[in-house]
Specification:
Layout lengths: L8 H11 L5 H22 L18 H4 L3 E5 H4 L3 H8 L6 E5 L10 H7 L8 E5 L1 H8 L12 H22 L3 E5 L1 H5 L9 H10 L6 H16 L6 E6 L28 E4 L9 H5 L7 E7 L9 H8 L11 E5 L13 H22 L1
Parallel strand pairs: 3-4, 4-5, 5-6, 6-7, 7-8
Antiparallel strand pairs: 1-2
Helix pairs in contact: 1-2, 2-14, 5-10, 7-8, 8-11, 13-14
Bound molecules: zinc ion.
Zinc ion binds next to loops.
Length: 371
Amino acid sequence: MVGSFSRPHDLIEATKRHAEGKVSQEELDAQLEKATEATIRGEEAAGLDVITDGEQRRSSFVSFVGDKIPGFKVMHITELNPEGLEILKRNKVQLTYMRAVVSEELKDAVIARDEYEKARKYSRKPFKVTLPAPYLVMWESWHKTHSKEAYPDPEDFGYAYAKLLRKEVLRLKDAGVSFVQLDEPMLGDLTEAGDKPDRYRRVFYELYGQEYRGFKEELKLAVDMLNEVIKGVSGVKIGVHMDRWPNKDSPYFDLGYERFLPELLETKTSQWVLEYTSQGTGDPAKLVKEFPDKVEIGLGVINVQNYEVETPEQVVARAERVTGSIEPERIWLNPDCGFAPGMFRTFPRDVAFAKLKSMTEAAEILRKKYA
Ligand SMILES: [Zn+2]
């Protein structure tokens, strides 16, 4: 899995009722535990080689850090800009309304190790834990008024967060996590930027007042911040995940992450976990053949938008877009993205598990064929 998995109905209900004061913390904790166990049991049944807890305990894949690290303040989007809701509508962008904004100097704290410790008893397989990457968090959480006193520039904040993230990566490694994935959808979205920013950076500029630096500068900053997290870390696999939302009217339709070459290859990551099933995403073969030795691709072979379960043969065909360009040992299969990056995103759990099963069946076919 990339990371997140849809939450069971009972957990979503308990979360809503807890916010209204109608469900106790103990009851909510019991639902969180049940959801974690059920998700991991489902992953085991689907035959996954690497387990995640499905981010069942997170409100959203990024804003949960605001609840974990001291220094953030949760604010409504209209407090950031009174026209926040109109800005989203005008740009056709969906964001959660409650935003974690940095308002004081950050302090080191556990971000995800606690979640892992609650999850690992349900499986003996290797675990993956996801963390929001610094370039993403810099764009998501630095506000020109609310953050300026603590961090005069967004870059100061981004690097401060990167340093804390590195400590958490080391804690996760010491706790026994096999694979840490840094989520960087904000960098993925840069595939739609050029002289002008893409719509996400446009929206964040309007909401937060952070300015677009230009394509190459943004790319270099993202890579440098990733390396600030990863430098000197060994003994744990580090992956970076990016999204890709091709837009038919865009000049970048049919181009993918190869737009980030060669700067992207400066990232000291061991795996790129990438979205590739949508039309117009670009050719993964072009990208992977440039990868340095040993760098792996986590290839998106399962669509997380539609509810049609792929056949194993369809998945095999998607994987075979790269088998001629990189050694089979360096190809991992995964869905395009998380099934539910925010806790209220609905995606039927049974459909998602069926998709995962198709993926593991495809992996079996491919292993036999390329052994
Ligand atoms: Zn994603």
